[in-house]
Fold this protein.
Amino acid sequence: MRWFWKDRLILFFCWSAAIFLGMVITVIGVYLGWKGIRCLNWEFIWDMPKGTPLGKEGGIYPALKGTLYLVFFFYFYFPFPLALITALYISCILFSFPLALITALYISCYGTGSRWGEFINLAIQTMSGNPSIVTGLFGYSLFVVSLGYGISLLSGSLTLGIMVFPVMVITFREALLAARERFMLVALSLGVSPWYLFRRVILPWAWPHIAGGTLLAMGYAAGATAPIMVTAVALFSPTTGSLREPVMALPYHIYILFSQHISLEKASGTALVLLILLLLINLTAMLIRAFKRDGV
Amino acid sequence: MILEIKNWHVWFGSHHVLKDINLTFPSKGIVAILGPSGCGKTTLLRSLNRTAELEASFRYQGSILFKGENIYAYRDPGIIRKRIGMVFQNPIALPLSIKENVLFGPRYWGMDKVSPHELCERILKRVGLWEEVKDRLHRSAQELSGGQKQRLALARVLALEPEILLLDEPCSSLDPDSTQRIEVLLKDLAQEKAVIMVTHNIDQAHRLADRVILMREGKVIEKP
């Protein structure tokens, strides 16, 4: 009987936490909607920022474009079919996806139990807990100053790539480990090589998790402000898409509109657009994961 | 004798799992290994096709001779795993179609060149699964029942034409009907190759086996 009440108590706390979180998200959504819905129209999305100070009037087009450039970096720099495949299967960030997949493959399939594998695991865990501003400062030192890329789209994308790298590795590793535990012994007992097992069984089984994890990492990158503040963004930029030029980005635009008291309404509208963008990315990730099926 | 185990010891870390095992197995017939849980039956079986070494802490001493050759002398354990096939306790279907499950090994070893479909049909008929799945070969193998999955696991191994078949409690999670089907199949297979099976079921061992080996605490305590 005592266990029964303990179970109910735990259930109560779980539900309370879930309801509290739901309420917080709802309040943020309602608040942003109430404050920002008035300026949310096609003009706001497609227009350049105008007015004095800049951003008091006009729209957010370069900032929206800049965010998409930063996150879907690879997508815009390759011919369409490759870009489409890339967007679907590979990644928003050219630099982190392949590296993350190879790292996850190593620590989940080859380096399990080895000291080197343990060391990489520890490094990934430490990286994932790194404050984003520290990653930003690292990106600034390496890409902006040392490699001379300046404040630019390239520096920002690379820095975001570093930021989401551990998140991607952890997501991929979990998916690959689950597949490995289920199928490794059975498959390897047939004499096949670990690579054949990975190619024929583990990767096809784990890809919805990998694609979903990639999209979640993209969402994380799209919402990040600190790393791009010091590596990629400017108060105003037409965001031409040139790798070596600074860009505008939604999170930084919100920060400027709000912190400089330029327009709370425009800041809320921009935040609403960012929220919708993140929601779309996360929903796509959920749909991809739900699409997962075993076999054919 | 097709297989000979000489002074075989296995450790996982500091745990001495198998202690001085000496056994021989004929090239045909069924040998059953009986013993309480944790006595090392599965480790012995997995030692025979080199899947025990997939555990990082595996260490061994002694030798296992397959047709006179030490199986641990091979650099590629895959060659031994192909020739000494193993079916596990839990019926696990690979996340592929039924047909691709059967052809998973043959495709890797280049044995599907003649006619993959014929090979698939022949093997599925052998394990008595053909009539049940012939209309859904391209459907996911996950849709099969436990008994069907276990026969598919057997088909996956038999498709590689192993010379020895190892079975680790193949019927422990199956209903009586599926168990009977597997037993009939094993008796049939034992006409042409060596079948070594681990079981908890004494009745099953006596029903099927030509020879029973008893194990306890990592040692063979009785062998005929």
About this structure: Chain B has a mean pLDDT of 91. Chain B is about 35% helix and 30% strand.
